[in-house]
Structure formats: C-alpha cells, structure tokens
Amino acid sequence: MPGTGTDQSVDALPRRRRMLVLAICCMSLLIVSLDITALNVALPSLGRELNADVSGLQWTVDAYTLVLASFLMLSGSMADRLGRRRVFTTGLVIFTTGSLLCALAPGLGWLVGFRMLQALGGSMLNPVAMSIIRNTFHDPKELARAIGMWGGVVGISMAAGPIVGGALVQAFDWRAVFWINIPVGITALVLTRRFVPESRAPRARRIDPVGQSLVILLLGSLTFGIIEGGRGEWTSAPIVGCFLVAALSLPALVWYESRRFEPLLDPRFFRSAPFSGASAIAVSAFAALSGFLFLNTLYLQDQRQLSALEAGTYLLPMAGVTLVLAPVSGWLINRVGARLPLLLAGSALTASGLMFAGWQAESDNARLFTAYVLFGIGFGLVNAPITNTAVTGMPRAQAGVAAGIASTSRQVGSALGVAMVGTALAAGSMRTGWWIITVCAVLVLVIGLLTSGPWAQASAGRAAERLAASGQRPGNH
Q1: How far apart are CA 436 and CA 416, in angstroms?
Q2: d(CA 327, CA 341)
Q3: Is the pLDDT of residue 474 over 50?
Q4: What is the mean pLDDT of residues 262-268?
Q5: Residue 283: which pLDDT band, with cuts at 50, 70 and 90?
Q6: Which residues contact 383 (CB under 8 A, 6 or more apart)?
Q7: Averaged over 459-473, what is the pLDDT?
C-alpha cells in the first residue's frame, strides 16, 4: 500500500521488503559518508591542482557540511509533510547532479559552489532515510537492530572511503571521488522508486522561514569567522562582526522558536536530557572525527610523503575497527542500553587524542597505529547511541524532525572540527589541533556520563509524553 500517504501505510510490509527498504536507505548514507571520507584523502591532490591553501581546503569540506547542517531539519520536516519518498528521491537527483558538476569543476570557487549544491541534495537523504526506517520498523528490538546496521554503514564508509579515495586518486585524479557517486546515486534512485513506500506524518507541519534563516545565519557566520580568522585577522571588523552575528543569532533562534506554533527546531525536544546529550555528543564526536581525518590526511601525504593510496592504507586500522564495532554498539544498546557504549567511546577517543597531543603518537608507527585503533574503537561505538537516543522515544509523527536534529548536530560538529583544527594548522600548530580533538573527546565522555543515567531517562519519558499529548504550543499561532 505505498500510496496511502500516512505513517500506517508501511505497517503491513513483510520482513523481506522491510530489509530491502533498510538497504536502500543505507545506500544513501553510504554515498554521503563515502564522499566525505574519500574526499579527505584527495585533499592534497586537489589542493595542488587547484592551487588551494589550507583555508581553501577547509572551505571544500565545510561548504558541504555547512549546507547539510543548515537544511537537514528543514528536509526532515518537509519529508514528514510532503512525503518521505518524494523528498528522498529529490535528494538523490540533486546529490547525483551535484556530484557530476563537482567532477567537472574548473576551479576552486566552482568546486565549493557545486559542493553546496551536492550538500543540498545530501540534506534530503540521511535524516529522511532515518525517518523512513523509523516508520518501517515498529518493533523496538527490530528497530534497534536496524539502527545498528545503519550505524554500521558509517563504519563501512570509513573503512572503504580512504582506500577507495586513495585508489581513485592514484589511478585517475581527485575528480574520480565524485564520479563514483553517480552510478550509486542512480541505482538508489531506481530502487527507491520501485520498492520504498510513500509515507508522511498524519498532520503536516508548517514552514518556518524565519527559523531556517536564523539557523543558516548562526552556522554560516560562526564557521566563516573561525576559518577566515585563522588567516591572522581575528580583530578585523568582518571577523568580529561574524562572531557578533553568531552570538546574537543563537538567543534569537531560541526565543523565536519557543514562541512558534510549529517550530523548525522544537525546544521541547531538548527537555529530554538524553536527547540533548545525544545532540551535544554528536557535535563533539564528529568535530573530533573531521579534525582527525583532516589532520592525518595532510600529515601522511605532506609530511610523510605518502601517496594517496598509502595514506588511505594507513588509516585502515582506525576505519576497520569502526566497521567491526558499529554493529556491536547497536547490539549493546539492545542488551544494556546506550550508557555503556557511550562511556567506552568517550574513553577510547580521549585516550587516542592524548596519545597524539601529549605523547606524539605520530613519532613512530607502533604508537601511531595504536592511537588509530583507539580512535576507531571510540567512533565505532559512539554513532549508534546517538541515533538510537535521538529517534527512539519520540512520537512517530515527528521522527523526521528528531532525526534531522541529530543529523544536524553531526554536521555542525564536522564543520566546526575542520574549521577549528584547520585554523590551528594554518597557524603552524598541529599540536594545538590535537588538543582540540582531545577536548572534544573528553566532552563525549563527560556528557555521556551525565545524560545517560536514571534521571535522564525519566526526563526523556516526560518530554515524549508532552510531545505526544500536546498538539498546541503556547505563544504565537
């Protein structure tokens, strides 16, 4: 019954069909995640051909993550309103087209612009796919397993990304990293049209242009200030102005959204301590990941003079451990809850960061690979708890918005990680970059400890009850 247009339209899907829907959704996550990890290995080659400095490389990565972060919540709510399959297929078309244009980009400015188009399509994929999964798997244990498999795809992209990216750069050039998205995107599009049923929330949400504009203003001004300020112009009027705009945009966003009937960013979600914690952990963990990949890719190729393929091979221990532990994390959540994998993740990430920042892990291969494995353990365990905590427990009708917020937090972290670490590197201090990554790892551990106990779970129950029971909000209608 794919065309009925409500959340109940997917209730009767047989198990084989449900697993096929999960596979199609995972394919979308794979091309978005693979694009990021594979591109990191290609950055030195890209920089040489397009004559890009560190700031230019930062924008190549952050233009993508900024647009993703800015539009993920809108995409999630639009999918709940207009139809999840419709928005998902639109995203596949835009992402694939953007990938084609990136592969043909004649210069750095064009590439950054096409990356933004590509990201606009990507913003319609991951949160919408998670919403489709949430509305396809209704049994809690089956949903937990599906989320574990979803998280495992991140591990696959990390394991395959550096090798695939390195091999493509070695055999062709950096443009091949974008060419590979095209057949995968077309395949996902055909399968989605054939097998994924349409679904939407029973009651459509209103568009929130003011909230959307404030989100773009906040993220864009903050990231621009960090990247461009790293060129030694921290006290210049444009940079100070950027930070002032960011500082004013945040309280304005909270004030406006708390008074809106159907907000883009519903403040009631954050009354749940686990949800708030998952969002903060996502920012911290993905800031650590993006900074880690950015630093190591440039270090291995520029300082150790490794080829792109060799650099990808060096990162394989970290990526391989992530691949193995991502589904294990989902299994642990199903057995003992999210607290244990969160604490293990924070501890491993912190240990890895300290090895680089305090004990110069890059000075010999034994320490380097130990630090890589520790980072892989931490990141492999952290993603499934973030997703599980953000989506489960929320009313099904708002699954798209909840997934959008969680995905936005990841992309905000990715953008800030590259901005902060790249700025430290541009200033000539790789060690400072590693300390930034270590601080992010410590935050994962501390926030995970504080927001996963019994009181936090009680706050999640109360928040979910309010969201499910209240169809009205105080303030302006």
Answers
A1: 11
A2: 11
A3: no
A4: 78
A5: very high
A6: 151, 154, 285, 326, 329
A7: 65
